[in-house]
Design brief:
By secondary structure, the chain is α/β, with parallel strands linked by helices. 47% of the residues lie in helices and 17% in strands. Strand 1, helix 1 and strand 2 form a beta-alpha-beta unit. The protein is globular and about 35 Å long.
């Protein structure tokens, strides 16, 4: 899987980015995502993610992670069909400010929080959600399974 990383904060250590690459590739294999799939992971500050949250979710506050899935079909949208086109999953945006504060709040490492948020965002890109209790339990269980199988514990 091809993952394009953008660190707009210039603060995420390269070894953390390498780990996230490996964990997301592992998650993609576990979920049966084709090897030619593409996605991006963007690291931003609270100000930028608040702007995105306000513009796209109508919530004027910073959040930890937002996913923009490309495979969701929207009513009235034309479907692009082509066997030669790569599978573009979408974009994950993570607030490094939130990741740092949540790592302290949840009493685990910043590295663990970034991998958790990356997997959470990835699962959203491939169709998982947590709009109701059943879906939330399923999604959070899958996150913990993937992280645990990779060896990342709380």
């Amino acid at each position: 899987m091809y993952i394009d990383f953008h660190d707009k904060t210039n603060s995420v250590p390269t070894d953390y980015i390498d780990l996230i690459q490996r964990v997301l590739t592992f998650a993609a294999e576990k979920e049966g995502v084709p090897n030619e799939a593409e996605m991006s992971v963007n690291f931003v500050d609270n100000k930028e993610i608040q702007e995105l949250n306000r513009n796209y979710r109508q919530k004027d506050s910073p959040t930890d992670v937002i996913s923009f899935a490309m495979q969701e079909s929207i009513e009235g949208e034309l479907e692009i069909i082509g066997e030669d086109l790569p599978l573009t999953l979408g974009d994950i945006v993570i607030s490094v400010d939130k990741a740092k504060s949540q790592a302290v709040e949840y009493n685990h490492t910043y590295e663990r929080e970034l991998t958790f948020l990356s997997v959470h965002g990835f699962l959203h890109l491939i169709g998982y959600d947590h709009m109701n209790k059943t879906d939330e339990e399923k999604m959070f269980k899958r996150q913990e399974e993937i992280l645990g199988e990779y060896g990342i514990e709380r």
